[in-house]
Amino acid sequence: MFRSRSWFGGGLWKPKNPHSLEHLKYLYHVLSKNQTVSENNRGLLVETLRSIAEILIWGDQNDSSVFDFFLEKNMLSFFLRIMKQKCGSYVCVQLLQTLNILFENIRNETSLYYLLSNNHVNSIIVHKFDFSDEEVMAYYISFLKTLSLKLNAHTIHFFYNEVNEHTNDFPLYTEAIKFFNHSEGMVRIAVRTLTLNVYRVEDVSMLAFIRDRTAAPYFSNLVWFIGNHIIELDTCVRNDADHQSQNRLSDLVAEHLDHLHYLNDILCLNISDLNKVLSEHLLHKLLVPLYVYSLMRHKNFLCQNQEERKHVSIVVALFLLSQVFLIVSHGPLVHTLAAVMLLSDFETIQTGASKVLEMYGDISSDKPIAFSPPKESLEKSLENLSESLTVSDDLYEEENNLEEKKDTVNTENGNEEVSGTNRASTSFNSVSTVTVPVLMSPEQLDIPAEDLEEIKHLNVTDEEKEQILALESPLTPQTQKNITESLSNKPFLETILNSLFCTENDYAALFALCLLYALANNQGIDRKTLDPILCNSQSSTTTLYNEILIDRLIHIITLSCQTNARVRLVTLELTIKLLIQLVMSEGQSMLKDSHLTAIEAAKEQSTSLLKNFYKSEDIFLDMFEDEYSEIQKRPLNVEWLMMDSNILLPPTGTPMTGIEFTKRLPCGDVERARRAIRVFFLIRDLSLTLNMEAETQLPLTNPANCIQVDNVLDLNNSDIISCTIVWKDGQKIRRFIVIDVKQLILVEPDTSKLGWGVAKLVGFLQDIEVAGDKDDSRCLYLTIYKPLSSSTGNRVPLLSAKFIFDDHIRCMAAKQRLTKGRIKARQKKMNQIARLLDIPTSIPHATTPPNYALRGFRCERLGRGQRLKDHQLRPMFTVNKVPGFAAQMRRENVARATPGLSSTPKRGDTTSNEKSHENGLRSRDNSPKMPRPRSEEIPLEDMRLRKASLTSNGLTISHICEEKKDGQISACSTNGEPSSVIRKHSEETSFTCPQEVKPPRRKGQVETV
Amino acid sequence: MVEPIFNYQFRLILIGDSTVGKSSLLKYFTDGKFAELSDPTVGVDFFARLIELKDGTKIKLQLWDTAGQERFRSITKSYYRNSVGVLLVYDVCNRASFEHIPQWMMDARRHIEPHRPVFALVGCKLDLVTNGSRREVSKEEARAFADQHGVHHIETSAKTGINVEEAFRTVTQEVYSRIQTGEYKLEDGWDGIKTGFYKPSGFDFNLIEAEPAETSCC
């Protein structure tokens, strides 16, 4: 019976196909039967609303009759009716979601326009949802955002109801900005996106509404909101103990960046009316009073009567200002701010006299502008904002009332606020009006008028007047005389320049540098304003830069070359970057000789600092090249630097903070070496730039001289070893190994030219690792690493595979040549470094005596060009040069005169020694007939021991003694093991050239004997 | 709830200056009511009504009301294309609204191309004239204009309801006649004319039984 009724009732049948007109009809039926929301039908309604969105979107793209039905039944009205009932968040959320989906997806513009028509949407927007419910809030704000994305010159009329007898409102905007300071970040972001979408619509009357009705309250509150974040940030920095608050700080810095980017986004829309109001608020209520005034060393001067005047620490102020100048480029704003910061002097700040700036000379700036202090009063206005906005017609008046209220609050609270008000307001207005006459025409703004009245009422006392800050530019042409004199008179500028002293640390110096850099690079600032600071405009003298500034920059550079300098690498790099920018003009250095000398001295200093580390670490060469590529790959980016909240905390040395190496002091010897290397590179580059010379010695490997993959090579008369390469996955390829001076090349024969080959894989010899195979004497395991790239923490192998040679002889040969090649390549580079550091290469004993004995010895032996390179051997390498058997070895070597033989047994480090040890063992097991262990190998094991025992032996003789000693030591160690242990080295030592196989054998015999 | 059965569906649009009475005309036509006060249309509005022609053919009219205000001009233009009939509405007591008719007509024509809509020139607020207000557009002048352009002319009052039905009926009849003569054809992708449902059965065979709604009345 029920069934039959529903049959005739129609529509109670749920069609199988959810995407059909029938389904929508069914849903309509459900809606019309359930117009009152109740506990029972709640679930049904939510499901219905959800389905409606789905089917409408489907219809929008597939069947116009679906939307026709929606129109005919006026189904939108159901939505509104449901919304107006107190239906609870469950239904509300679905309703908002459905609307959101509709507006987001409907493409058909006639459908969209219909939905937007007749203020239905506006009535949804102004509906008082329960915003305490997070979910409702989220869906509501994203609904608004979606709508804002639909805004354009046509659709704006649906949202902004122009002035007539009934209406002048723009609920989408006014409702949204109420949430500008919502606790949820996503909500704030949505509001910002929305406001930008609104501003972007070029509709004159709408923008007029925005400016006249909402700009002042919105921006003033926004600015207050930002200011509070900054106070919070400052507190966070002040109270930080031991970098505990890195996360919190990082959030706050990110927040500040968001603020600035948002403000800049608005300013970049170039809506002059809006920008005027925004710039004013920013300057009057935030940038000057909070940022710039915080630069004042003696805060009391500014705030005699204000025990709780808000200011932030100098470090934070410098940091924030840098961010401002890095991000915001709106000319009138940054220019004014720069002028206030750089030009205002003590007297003008103190006397509060605001006069015409004769320098710019076209506008009278006597009009004081009052500054509403960011105090409780503004918080009140925050509360009132929402009310005043809803009654948009009265908004203006309310705003005015607020101002008045503020006044009373101020007077009640005592003079301090009032004085603060006046001071700040007058302060930069003078400058701003003067320097940026066009922008700052306060007459047009609401607040100034208000403020004028305020001032009248306030009846400012003399004492207050004294506190009034009038930022009149002192820079009349005559006053340009001596920057030193004027400096002491310019508190803000003085602070900035004094921050450059990094005697204790470079905490503030880094930010001062950033700020100067940002100022110098900000496109919005008139060069004239900067001239007195960044360069002397005294054209009579030869110098075209500010000597004080350059002195201080060079001082930082000099300091950073000291041992245990307290200057971080990033500070040095930024100093150099700034210095180059200031003194280089069209490729020419304008630096005075005295300054240039200072820099050359610094370069010497950095070189000798680095000399101390030369070879003292096993991985010096790798570090050297790594640091170079790092510096090349990642030149300092100041914008990025200033996003890093870590630099806001006092400089630290420990890497356990997670702070990047360049942004902290070095920790331990390795890092000190890395730092010395970097300092050397940086100052070397500076020196070359200033001398207009090109770098010829770095990088150590010139890629232009290297063989590249696919190069076709003439291999006639080259040593070629054929082999089969087996990858881990079992893939096999036949290749020929060619060993160049620097590189290992795998070639395949060129089919077109006999004796030529095509390079298929190229790796640097210095980056290879070779290991034998204990089970197969014809095999080598070869790993070729990619050239250094510290972007990836660990080294990535270019190739890691098993190489199978024709027989074990060839295998040995290959191994020896590869190992030798590696050592030679490294020697060569160490030589290059020595040349860079002015370490005399002909006297190889100069720096690391323990090893020199050996080297000198070997030089003798070798005779050839090897000699020069020898001194570069690292201690580790030299270790291999067998003590005890030296004489014999030398004889052999000399006899054969094989260049590079001496370095044959070298291995990079202890681990590889151990490896070779193992390998030797393996080879012994497998091929007992292999060459006997060569004496050279033995010391490898005891390298450390020996290294320790070896002390400065400058002479060959003493060295021999040393070697003998070593030999004994090693003998001891080897003696402890079965004799086979000694023999295990046989393979190892016998590698490389077949011809060398024999001598080691002999040696081995000697040893075993 | 059974879907009204109709043979054709025509889409008509009302255009003309702001405050000439388009919305009132439509409201009377669909609701039979007249509101003394009404807010200006923001954007567009939609109405639908079924009428039966003399030969018994049932036509569903989809009626788009548009805002006359200049600022919505770009919005309303997108509704022209899918219309087969255009009511050019003016206020008999507002000279300017009549003088703008050629402009409205040209706009419509241009946007409806390549289709050629049926126009009707509709004067509104005839009741004001009978109440003694000054008529600014004479019947003769309007008629002359209509004749010149080959369109129907009619004067109406949404307050008294005089000629309201007639105005829409004329346009509908004309569209239908053009279908009969083959001048208008059904076209995919054009919503000006559509065929309706002939079968009295509104149900598809794929319907399944729904759970009865909790609140449905029995």
UniProtKB/TrEMBL annotation, chain A:
Q: Which residues form the CLEC16A/TT9 C-terminal domain?
A: 247-919
Output the GO biological process annotations, alphabetical, semicolon-separated. autophagy; endosomal transport; regulation of autophagosome maturation; vacuolar transport
Q: Where is the composition biased (Basic and acidic residues)?
A: 906-945
Q: What is this protein called?
A: Protein CLEC16A homolog
FPL domain: residues covered: 49-199
Indicate the transmembrane segments per the record.
none
Q: Which organism is it from?
A: Tetragonisca angustula
Q: What InterPro entries does UniProt report for this protein, alphabetically?
A: CLEC16A/TT9, CLEC16A/TT9_C, CLEC16A/TT9_N
Q: What does the sequence similarity comment in the record state about its family? A: Belongs to the CLEC16A/gop-1 family.
Polar residues biased stretches: 410-424
Q: Which keywords has UniProt assigned to this entry?
A: Autophagy
What PANTHER family does this protein map onto?
Answer: PROTEIN CLEC16A
Q: Name one GO cellular component term.
A: late endosome
Claim: Metal-binding is one of the keywords in the record: no
From TrEMBL, chain B:
> Where does it live in the cell?
Cell membrane; Cytoplasmic vesicle membrane
Keywords assigned by UniProt, alphabetized = Autophagy, Cell membrane, Cytoplasmic vesicle, GTP-binding, Lipoprotein, Membrane, Methylation, Nucleotide-binding, Prenylation
Q: Does the keyword Nucleotide-binding apply?
A: yes
Record-level GO cellular component terms = cytoplasmic vesicle membrane; plasma membrane
Q: Is Membrane a UniProt keyword of this protein? A: yes
Chief subcellular location: membrane
Q: How does it sit in the membrane?
A: Lipid-anchor
Among InterPro entries, the record links this protein to:
P-loop_NTPase, Rab39, Rab_GTPases_membrane_traffic, Small_GTP-bd, Small_GTPase
Q: Which domain of life is it from?
A: Eukaryota
Pfam family, any one: Ras
Q: Provide the GO MF annotations for this entry.
A: GTP binding; GTPase activity
List GO BP terms, alphabetically. Answer: autophagy; Rab protein signal transduction
Family to which the UniProt record says this protein belongs: Belongs to the small GTPase superfamily. Rab family.
What is the name of this protein? Ras-related protein Rab-39B
What organism is recorded for this protein? Tetragonisca angustula
